[in-house]
Design brief:
This protein has about 575 residues and is mostly helical. Helix content is about 40%, strand content about 5%. Among the domains are: about 250 residues, Serine Threonine Protein Phosphatase 5, Tetratricopeptide repeat (Alpha Horseshoe), CATH 1.25.40.390; about 110 residues, no CATH class. The chain contains 19 helices and 12 strands.
Length: about 575
């Protein structure tokens, strides 16, 4: 973003200085601050004021929370049990989650809501120097962010309180959890207002647009179409709305997929920004910024500190889940090599965007049993042994692992990488469109559905299909968005309207450890039932039921907000100001 970084950081510190109430859902940034109405005197002030909504507000969700909930719980990533994070692998997360991911996600998402609300308050009370168009655009950003946070809150915790004005509601003793259907209506209202007041072009590189709001609106309608349904049927009116908005983005926005999927996850410059136009909503980090405004994703995912050259890189315990690895190693999917290379590290592969000065990062097929090898003095592959697990020669995470500052225009540093976090991409809209057209039919050969579904596959270099089912679309999402924090939320959309099959999908999913070995350069995978005997061959499955389809509230919040244990109530929409 081409903004005054000092202004952004100053505003951010104030926004994050939560005071008073310890209930996370009523976090209230102070209004008597430089962000208050008298500070917003111009259009530029409003633009600077909404800037922190793209980074610091989401800081606690980016990284471990996105990873553990979105991909470990969602079945795309392995994990060990360090600090209890293995509970996300085994569907056994509790309110006292030792990994901290549960509390961090909960606090961060309510922080987004609170900060969006307080900036909206400030915009509504801005000085006369700010135009009405600028006010409306700023408010649209606030409401978009609020809706985005509620998307994750609702899919993770179900019925949650609807907080639309933190200042007004701070002393409201009547606040309770609201019906889940009301939360989805609240999101749809916010996104509808946003799409009506955002421009088709971003105010600055990486900012959201009308198309971002329409795409998110399509997603909200698609998810809501299954709410309260059973047996695989969805509400046709909501499906039609999802189809309309996704189709408008697909056909009328002028946006296209970036030609090379691999380039999405490098620091390559996209017209002066690290955020490509394909990203409809991303978190925009400051590569030389302080805590909360910098991206620490790589620190959690890189399997070796030699990759980052900054002392971090603690991701050796993570990697492709057996189900994800099985897809990429299936000879039938050999052509999907572009996404494979962008998603996971596999021996026998060179990654040219890392260790660029020495010809790339080459993962050798001969380096097993804790052997060590090097290119230019740097160890390039070191299997990790973790506790009771056996032979973690894994397909480690490549996505969001972009190398050292020297590989990235000199930008970045420890726990600070020069890349945006993608929350919502155009490829998602394409698959939403195909899904909405499919609707309640078993399969479809509709030309529009196939056009956009196959566009995602064609970009990946794999063959088009002439007919698709819900299972095809679900699988495509799994591969396209692996390690982007999508898998759990895509599953939850399925669970809304087809509980039995969605639960069976997870209960039958192999979540055990594995070892990749090579015989004359040919890879094969050995799976282990790692629970009782780490060397016992076989798969490992964990039971999934409706009892753990929602995450538990953090214990600290249950203690100070017992209303979270009470039955939800209807929300009064007449109280919301737009």
């Amino acid at each position: 973003m081409k903004q005054n970084v000092t202004t952004i950081l100053t505003t951010l510190i104030v926004l994050l200085a939560m005071q008073g109430c310890k209930k996370d859902y009523l976090n209230r940034p102070p209004l008597a601050s430089p962000t208050a109405g008298t500070y917003y005197q111009s259009n530029t002030d409003i633009l600077n004021g909404t800037g922190p909504l793209y980074n610091g507000s989401w800081g606690g969700y980016n990284g471990t929370s996105l990873q553990y909930i979105g991909d470990v719980l969602g079945g795309n990533s392995l994990s060990d049990n360090y600090n209890g994070r293995g509970a996300y692998l085994t569907f056994s997360v509790t309110s006292t989650d030792g990994s901290g991911a549960l509390q961090s996600a909960y606090q961060a998402l309510w922080s987004v809501v609170a900060n969006a609300n307080v900036v909206a308050y400030n915009i509504r009370n801005a000085g006369a120097g700010a135009t009405q168009d600028a006010r409306n655009a700023g408010l649209a950003e606030c409401y978009f962010m609020r809706a985005s946070a509620y998307y994750f809150l609702a899919l993770n915790w179900g019925a949650v309180p609807i907080i639309h004005d933190n200042s007004l509601q701070l002393g409201d003793a009547s606040i309770k959890r609201n019906n889940l259907a009301d939360a989805w209506q609240f999101m749809i209202n916010d996104l509808t207002w946003a799409k009506n007041n955002l421009s088709a072009l971003p105010a600055q590189p990486g900012r959201i647009t009308k198309w971002s709001a329409e795409g998110m609106l399509a997603r909200a309608y698609l998810v809501r179409s299954g709410l309260g349904k059973t047996g695989g049927a969805r509400d046709q009116t909501d499906l039609d709305s999802a189809k309309f908005y996704a189709g408008d983005v697909a056909n009328n926005s002028g946006l296209t997929l970036l030609p090379n999927y691999y380039d999405l996850f490098t620091s390559k410059k996209f017209s002066g920004t690290v955020t490509p136009a394909e990203c409809l909503f991303g978190l925009l980090w400051v590569p030389s910024g302080q805590w909360f405004v910098q991206n620490h994703m790589q620190a959690n995912l890189a399997y070796d500190s030699k990759i980052t050259q900054t002392g971090d890189g603690w991701g050796g315990s993570f990697g492709a889940s057996p189900s994800l690895l099985k897809y990429f190693m299936d000879p039938a999917n050999k052509a999907d090599s572009v996404r494979r290379k962008a998603t996971i590290f596999l021996p026998g592969t060179n990654y040219p965007d890392i260790n660029t000065a020495n010809g790339g990062w080459h993962v050798d097929t001969t380096l097993f049993n804790n052997a060590t090898n090097s290119v230019g003095g740097a160890k390039i592959y070191s299997p990790v042994t973790t506790g009771a697990y056996y032979g973690n020669d894994h397909a480690y995470v490549k996505k969001y692992v972009i190398g050292s500052p020297a590989d990235n225009f000199g930008l970045g540093g420890q726990q600070n990488e020069n890349i945006s976090t993608y929350i919502f991409r155009l490829a998602d809209v394409y698959l939403i469109y195909a899904d909405a057209i499919l609707g309640n039919t078993a399969t479809t050969a509709d030309p529009e559905a196939l056009k956009y579904y196959n566009a995602v596959r064609t970009r990946a270099g794999i063959a088009s299909k002439s007919s698709i089912s819900y299972a095809d679309i679900f699988q495509e999402k799994k591969i396209e968005f692996a390690f982007e924090g999508h898998a759990w939320y895509d599953w939850k959309q399925w669970y809304y309207f087809d509980q039995a099959n969605a639960l069976a999908y997870f209960s039958n999913q192999n979540r055990g450890q594995y070892n990749i070995s090579y015989n004359n350069g040919n890879p094969f995978v050995t799976y282990f039932d790692d629970t009782n005997n780490p060397q016992t061959l076989g798969e490992r499955h964990y039971s999934m039921s409706g009892n753990n389809a929602d995450l538990p509230y953090p214990e600290s919040d249950l203690l100070v907000a017992p209303i979270l244990s009470e039955a939800p109530v209807a929300f009064d929409f007449s109280k919301v100001q737009y």
